[in-house]
Give the backbone structure.
Amino acid sequence: MKTPKLLGIHAKPGRKLNTILVALPFILLIASYLIGSNLRLQRNEHDKVMPSLSRIWAGIERVALSEHPRTGKIMIVQDTFVSLQRMGFGLSVAAVCALIVGLNAGMFPGLRPATIPFVTFMSTISPIALLPILLVAFKGGEMAKPTFIFLGTVLVMMRDIYNTVERIPKEQITQVLTLGAGQLNIVYEVVLPQIMPRLLTNVRLALGPAWIYLIASEAMGANAGLGHQIFLQSRLFNMDVVIPYVLWITFIGFVMDTAFRKFIEWKYLWYRVR
Amino acid sequence: MSREHSTSGHEYVLELEDVRKSYGSKIVLADIDLKVRRGEFCTVVGPSGCGKSTLLRLILGQEEATYGTFKVFGAPVRFADATRGIVYQKYGLLPNLTVFQNVMLGKKFSGSMLDRWRHRKTYADEVAYYLDRVCLSPDDYNKYPEDLSGGMQQRVAVAQALIKRAPMLLMDEPFGALDPGIRESMQVFILEVWEEYDLTIFFVTHDLPEAVFLGTRILGISQYYEDGGSNPVCGARIVCDHALPRSAQSTVVKETAAFGQLVQEIRYETFTPEHRQYVTEFNLKHPDSFQTLTNEERNGRQ
Ligand SMILES: Nc1ncnc2c1ncn2[C@@H]1O[C@H](COP(=O)(O)OP(=O)(O)OP(=O)(O)O)[C@@H](O)[C@H]1O
Ligand SMILES: [Mg+2]
């Protein structure tokens, strides 16, 4: 029996081949950018849409390695700080609310009718459509951004936590009751620890949407932040700044996602990350 | 519902009369009449799907009977609490706790935090003792339920329920996935705990020799009978009810002729679809056995 390396359902790519295959799409992407950029620059050497590597490096030096001439601060650090603050605030409040409502509605049937149908209905509203309303309501103020991230992520998380709580087998609850647990023991010592990893997984999955809402809200009404900078610079056709910013955002997102996954795996050994 | 059950002072720990249970239009249990004395080891047998687990859920207070009088410890049945322990067919253990923590649960919710801290050594020893008695080695203590085999999970669930020593213990095929050797030592263990702490046990099993060996009373539940009305009948009843020779016998009795004969008799009465007794002819020999019949049923056989 000969195991194929690449083709068929029995294939087992070796380590080396695997590494090459993982790198392949990245190499293709970079190569096609360089070719495209080269072609455009040949036609017009002042083209700003696809700057060359050296121009991008100059951009990186300007925003990430030297202080801004006016503010005396490093631009990208300043923007990252502002953005992450908004995101952290919005997402963590959303997670706490989702936990409180989802857990209690899931455990106490009496709390369900007043919450779950409403949440289900509200979560069909497109959050993006709420953005203009929020901007007007907060008069473009700082709270508009975290509020927007909060609104965009909280309902989905709430529904998922509720569903997770509800799916816990009734047998398990009865079993712990027969071991002498009271109702509050059940909610806070039996069910809560079981849904914590699920909550963190939810936050992890909400990072993607949260970035969308963050950048959208910063694009439309802010004077600092990663999203603000990207839109501002692209209006000035400074792609040599926009591209490093996009790469940086991607990198932060990747690190956060990995950190969450690793933390869940480390902290909740019993939880099989699905 | 008050939290305290009075669990003593009643001769009968269970009094059921005319109990019915249906899910939607599907009748599962039809007219169960049953009285059980304190200290009885009741084994329950019956065809798959006849409603044995359902009956346990009713006793436990996890679900409510559709009709009938249902008294536990002399008072109407209450929601699940520490007076009745349960070993489920499945889903017993908490997935986020290790084997050791799962068994420790029974200690966790009793007494104050200070008490638990003071007795932590005694409790840990006790947990280790119970785990040892269900044949789990210290290597397994820190495993999570998902990493255990089906039989190991069952044994942890048994230890978890036994350590609590609730006055009434309900067990739903607790030894279903065990090999013969471990099964036998578990049988001995449960008889030991039952005698020592004067428990009342309900033990559902598909293994007739096991039922006859363990019990002081055996109940056969079945839908294979006739009531003179609709055909086929809806819902299961208690079709046989025998007293069994009393308590902790040596496992050798399983080989005697009388033992084998009783097993055959119960098998015939409970599990044979072709053998349909009329409701007035059930083999209800146990002294506590009784039947509430309607007039049509009493006179009805044509
Ligand atoms: N929640 C429910 N809704 C509808 N029907 C149910 C429900 N629970 C049980 N039943 C039905 O009740 C009947 C009895 O189920 P039960 O689990 O009590 O059987 P059992 O005697 O324990 O069987 P087994 O020996 O296979 O465990 C089955 O026909 C089952 O389909
Ligand atoms: Mg069952």
